[in-house]
């Protein structure tokens, strides 16, 4: 069963008819689906996408993080639930084990999206995804069109930093050392994926 079918089966908004992120995820994860991965999804809600990931990645250990302690009911032999605030560095550091894949579908607040990436990226082995970055353009999430400090602007700036750091005759203008391992940044409608370099 493909990921879009699993999204429909489990009732997550990641599938066709809503965000359709599953089409992108199919391409992203095609070569690693059978591997024994550790996956973290920030934002549990009703556990639908965690169940989808369990079906899609048969050998993976699935982790979910949410601020709502009621989400503990979704824990089972394959799913571990962490209760915490993705905007709180201490909560993130408590679970900051080495994840292969991190998917941020949490608060959608731009400051939380940035803080989570800053804390979790150094220990992410393969891919870090930020979903629903349309909130970078919405005032209620701390966004605004081309407003400095949004998640989209943060990652756009990283594109410059990563590229300027490749020139040996130029200084690494503000690029923190922990981002030197970025291999690729992919912008898609309402989604940003950051890949570890080799």
What is the compact description of this entry?
The relative contact order is 0.12.
Description:
The protein is α/β, with parallel strands linked by helices and about 200 residues long. It has one domain (about 5-195): Rossmann fold (3-Layer(aba) Sandwich), CATH 3.40.50.150. The chain has helices at about 5-10, 20-30, 50-55, 90-95, 110-120, 150-165, and strands at about 40, 60-65, 80-85, 100-105, 125-130, 180-190, 190-195. It has a 7-stranded mixed beta sheet with strand order 3-2-1-4-5-7-6, with helices on both faces. α1 runs antiparallel to α3. It is globular, with a radius of gyration of 16 Å. It starts with a helix and ends with a strand.
Strand order of the largest sheet: 3-2-1-4-5-7-6
Q: What helical percentage do the residues reach?
A: 25-40%
Poorly predicted sequence stretches spanning 5 or more consecutive residues: none
Q: What would CATH call the class?
A: Alpha Beta
**What is the average of the pLDDT values?**
91
- How widely separated are the two ends? 31 Å
Note the quaternary state here.
single chain
Query: How do the helices and strands follow one another from N- to C-terminus?
Result: HHEHEEHEHEHEE
How many individual helices?
6
Number of strands: 7
- Per CATH, what is the topology? Rossmann fold
Q: What structural class do you assign from the helix and strand content? A: alpha/beta
Shape: globular
Q: How many strands, which pairing sense, and closed or not: the largest β-sheet?
A: 7 strands, mixed
Q: Would you identify the CATH architecture?
A: 3-Layer(aba) Sandwich
